[in-house]
Specification:
Structural class: mainly beta
Strand order of the largest sheet: 1-2-6-5
Number of strands: 11
Oligomer: single chain
Helix content: 10-25%
Largest sheet: 4 strands, antiparallel
Strand content: 35-45%
Order of helices and strands: HEEEEEEEEEEE
Length: 192
């Protein structure tokens, strides 16, 4: 006869496992930004050339606890011509960091005082190569039906354009009231 608390414990564990799996698989994947050419738009603004560099340093002093996402530089050719002996008038550059539908970010630049003739957008935080995939998994298992435990190990194996997960599991098995033994299973599945 199964104790009354055992089904409640199994339900609680299942709810916790489902919530953890939902959180784990619901995390967005990081976007690896690549180089992109400069693009001129109809309104005179320019989507800057993107040139990822994880070692780029900003020219400004960065406040504590701030994270640099972009380092951008814009060269502006003013429309006004300075008179002899007088400095050129100030040039205003409007810059906007945008997120594209593919998750990548771009910088738009425009100036009411002149034409943008070039610029560079340097992603800093996403320029480093992504971490290699974690292909191994291991853990313990437990059967709430007969209170048996086990261990498992898995590996993701690339096959053509898919990833196949193969693994082995060794569980404690109960045959009778006081009988014990070991049960081994081999598993194959798809990683997602």
């Amino acid at each position: 006869m199964m104790p009354r608390r055992l089904p409640l414990a199994a339900i609680a564990i299942a709810i916790f496992a489902a919530a953890a799996a939902g959180w784990w698989f619901g995390q967005p994947k990081p976007v690896q930004e690549t180089a992109a050419p400069e693009q001129h738009q109809a309104d005179g603004s320019v989507i800057l050339e993107r040139r990822p560099d994880p070692k780029a340093k900003p020219k400004q002093q960065i406040p504590r606890k701030a994270k640099v996402e972009r380092v951008a530089q814009v060269v502006v050719q003013p429309d006004a011509i300075a008179e002899a002996g007088k400095p050129c008038p100030p040039v205003t550059v409007d810059m906007t960091l945008i997120r594209e539908p593919d998750g990548m970010r771009r910088v738009l630049a425009s100036s009411p005082d002149g034409q943008i003739v070039g610029g560079i957008d340097v992603p800093v935080d996403t320029a480093a190569p992504p971490e290699p995939p974690k292909r191994w998994g291991a853990g313990i298992s437990w059967s709430p039906a007969d209170s048996t435990a086990g261990v498992w190990i898995e590996r993701d194996v690339p096959v053509f354009s898919r990833v196949v997960r193969v693994g082995a599991e060794v569980n404690q098995a109960r045959v009778g009231i006081d009988a014990g033994g070991i049960e081994t299973r081999v598993r194959v599945g798809f990683a997602f």
